[in-house]
Amino acid sequence: MTTTPPRPAVEIRDLHKSFGPLEVLKGIDFEVGQGEVVCVIGPSGSGKSTLLRCVDLLEEPTAGRIWVNGVEMTDPDVEVDAVRRGIGMVFQSFNLFPHLTVLNNLTIAQRRVLRRGRAEAERIARDNLERVGLTDKADVFPAQLSGGQQQRAAIARSLSMEPKLMLFDEPTSALDPELVGDVLTVMRKLAEDGMTMMVVTHEMAFARDVADRVVFMDGGVVVEQGPPQEVLGAPRHERTRAFLSRVLDPTRVAQLGQPDQAPEPPEAPGLPADGRHTI
Amino acid sequence: MKLRRRQRERLSLGIQYLVFIAIIAGVLFAADWDRLKDAFFRVDIIKSMFPTIITVALRNTILYTLGAFAFGLVFGTVLALMRLSRVAPYRWVATAYIELFRGLPALLVLFLVGYGIPIAFPEREIPGGVFGSIAIGLGLTAAAYMAETIRAGIQAVPKGQMEAARTLGMSHFTAMRTIVIPQAFRIVIPPLTNELILLTKDSSLAYVLGVTAQTIEVTKFGRDMLNDRVNATPLLVAGLAYLVITLPLSQVVRRLELRYAKAR
């Protein structure tokens, strides 16, 4: 192993996750390359959020292995707090700390986790607030912000930890429609700056314009993945087509209440199994 | 004559005020004010209670209350965290403790601490003497109540708060200390105020430990004076002394809640 190529940001092998008797993830193989922007789409209940949460170990996988930046998250002895420092997570419900000002939301983990001094932490925090266009909101409490502002503050909070990988769990789903654009603009800028991103989203336009690769999940498996123009423009699988037509043309009543006539899920498109991951 | 709607309303309101005033006036006139004043409001006795009631009795009541509250708050928080622990024996112990001490009268616990501990550990003394005994004795019971309140407060903090803190790399402990518990305490300020007010009054149980002139608190002071002067005036003054504590306390907490309201 002398000329190892850089490890992907995320590698997932045969990931299974069950909640009680309900199997949500049924064997996922998945990668996110360094600098790559991957959008995960699919109907609700398809397991896409669970997949994302498994990457940060917010959900404990039932079986399978996950590596983040070359560190195995599923190793029982992994220093999970240390690995999480390199991963930013953005939630659907923002999860800003309501008892702290926006500035302190951005500095608390820097100071407690990275042990940065107050001045340095605040400088980095203000830089990131500027990045998301909230320079003037440093000293207010989250409750005084709109949803879109809260989400941008949450993104800035993650960025303040200088992560190598950002995970987004339906970041715009809780927002009023007119506030979605601001958040997506921030995310697009982030992608252009070269951030590695894994985004679970229903924003098809964002996936089409920003993603390097789109992954369609349904029923706990990856049904189809590829460049956005292929998966969104010319989907190969019936389930992808059915999903896209529902999302892009939601008023088509002909399908109302009809179950999908899709065949059994095909095997996920094979990823190269080259034995790099045997430790 | 038929009244219009507004006239009817005005008449009804007038009658209600009249009844109210009549009852007040009735009580005021019927009571024998001279005898009442003689039994409960002898100015010479009131004067004789000052300044001791403030400098000693009220001071001690406040000290005992704060001591018991501080002990109860710290111990109650520990119990709450034990109740939420992943370690099953911690949960069992905390649950058993809470059930036991919520069920025992505070008076009994104070007795057990005041007389039981010196018997069990003859070599050692409870730090702080009477003050320590009262703080621990009342605090043990208060902790059981506060533990349940604090546990509810911790569980009322949305799960996403812990998740967000953990994804920023914080340990469970750091996340609990800097993110979850501060929010939980904002939630439980009203019920904890209740507990503080209850403790203020429970501090009157201190007499079972045999207080001296130096360690006397408001109720015992009032009762002693009652026996001394064969007059109920000291009880009235003692009662007012408690209100001097509890009424401003309610105000302070209301302010505190308002201040935190925007940070919720």
Automatic annotation (TrEMBL), chain A:
<protein>
    <submittedName>
        <fullName>Amino acid ABC transporter ATP-binding protein</fullName>
    </submittedName>
</protein>
<dbReference type="InterPro" id="IPR030679">
    <property type="entry name" value="ABC_ATPase_HisP-typ"/>
</dbReference>
<dbReference type="InterPro" id="IPR027417">
    <property type="entry name" value="P-loop_NTPase"/>
</dbReference>
<keyword id="KW-1003">Cell membrane</keyword>
<dbReference type="InterPro" id="IPR017871">
    <property type="entry name" value="ABC_transporter-like_CS"/>
</dbReference>
<dbReference type="GO" id="GO:0005524">
    <property type="term" value="F:ATP binding"/>
</dbReference>
<dbReference type="InterPro" id="IPR050086">
    <property type="entry name" value="MetN_ABC_transporter-like"/>
</dbReference>
<keyword id="KW-0472">Membrane</keyword>
<feature type="domain" description="ABC transporter">
    <location>
        <begin position="10"/>
        <end position="244"/>
    </location>
</feature>
<dbReference type="InterPro" id="IPR003593">
    <property type="entry name" value="AAA+_ATPase"/>
</dbReference>
<keyword id="KW-0547">Nucleotide-binding</keyword>
<feature type="region of interest" description="Disordered">
    <location>
        <begin position="255"/>
        <end position="279"/>
    </location>
</feature>
<keyword id="KW-0813">Transport</keyword>
<dbReference type="InterPro" id="IPR003439">
    <property type="entry name" value="ABC_transporter-like_ATP-bd"/>
</dbReference>
<keyword id="KW-0029">Amino-acid transport</keyword>
<comment type="similarity">
    <text>Belongs to the ABC transporter superfamily.</text>
</comment>
<keyword id="KW-0067">ATP-binding</keyword>
<dbReference type="Pfam" id="PF00005">
    <property type="entry name" value="ABC_tran"/>
</dbReference>
TrEMBL record, chain B:
<feature type="transmembrane region" description="Helical">
    <location>
        <begin position="12"/>
        <end position="31"/>
    </location>
</feature>
<dbReference type="InterPro" id="IPR043429">
    <property type="entry name" value="ArtM/GltK/GlnP/TcyL/YhdX-like"/>
</dbReference>
<keyword id="KW-0029">Amino-acid transport</keyword>
<protein>
    <submittedName>
        <fullName>Amino acid ABC transporter permease</fullName>
    </submittedName>
</protein>
<feature type="transmembrane region" description="Helical">
    <location>
        <begin position="127"/>
        <end position="147"/>
    </location>
</feature>
<keyword id="KW-0472">Membrane</keyword>
<feature type="transmembrane region" description="Helical">
    <location>
        <begin position="103"/>
        <end position="121"/>
    </location>
</feature>
<feature type="transmembrane region" description="Helical">
    <location>
        <begin position="232"/>
        <end position="253"/>
    </location>
</feature>
<feature type="transmembrane region" description="Helical">
    <location>
        <begin position="62"/>
        <end position="82"/>
    </location>
</feature>
<keyword id="KW-0812">Transmembrane</keyword>
<dbReference type="InterPro" id="IPR000515">
    <property type="entry name" value="MetI-like"/>
</dbReference>
<comment type="similarity">
    <text>Belongs to the binding-protein-dependent transport system permease family.</text>
</comment>
<keyword id="KW-0813">Transport</keyword>
<dbReference type="InterPro" id="IPR010065">
    <property type="entry name" value="AA_ABC_transptr_permease_3TM"/>
</dbReference>
<keyword id="KW-1003">Cell membrane</keyword>
<dbReference type="InterPro" id="IPR035906">
    <property type="entry name" value="MetI-like_sf"/>
</dbReference>
<keyword id="KW-1133">Transmembrane helix</keyword>
<dbReference type="Pfam" id="PF00528">
    <property type="entry name" value="BPD_transp_1"/>
</dbReference>
<feature type="domain" description="ABC transmembrane type-1">
    <location>
        <begin position="58"/>
        <end position="253"/>
    </location>
</feature>
